[in-house]
Amino acid sequence: MAISKMLLKTWVSSFSKATRKRSPTWSSHFFSTSSSPTTAVAADIVADEDLLYPNATASPFTAEIPGLLQPRVVIYDGVCHLCHSGVKWVIKADKDRKIKFCCVQSDAAEPYLNVCGLSREDVLRRFLFVEGPYVYSQASTAALKVAYHLPFPYSAMSSLLIIPKPLRNAVYDYVAKNRYDWFGKDDECLVLKETEMLSRFVDKEELVDKLRSRQN
């Protein structure tokens, strides 16, 4: 009997440790297929993320979360050459294909913006990383949280979150303000010129339609 209790205690302890290592329950294939989560559930999600990311932002936006939104999506300026180069780098480093992308110019970006309570102008100024329902980040924090999901050694860059956010964002904003002058921009989303990347984009169908209409 004593041995059985000892084995049971060991199993429960192991299970608890394994559970703590798992990703939050929302980070499977979609956020929600019906109504938005309750306030309590949303609070739990934000609390869990804050343990990992002390600078995580919880959106006060309380509209219903659209179905089939995917977690870990980068919403970025698709016509910016610097932004496009950054996306290409992440795709190359992300061997586990955890991160997905969407051009802010696409209609497919709208539900993500609505969930976060942001406009396209907000994202053109500071790119957006949506990790899950009511959990998102922008600018330098978003970049470092993307790095967190990449394999080592790239994930080690997330340790730079220790640098005060105002200092990090001051550098980010300066580069972002001058990115078109320094690196240039295009008239349409640059991924249309590198279609092998489209499999990682949540707005793939919309971009493919643009390609077809352009060819016709």
Automatic annotation (TrEMBL):
One of its GO terms (molecular function) is protein-disulfide reductase activity. It comes from the Eukaryota. InterPro entries: DCC1-like (IPR007263), DCC_oxidoreductase (IPR052927). Pfam families: DCC1-like. This is Thiol-disulfide oxidoreductase DCC.
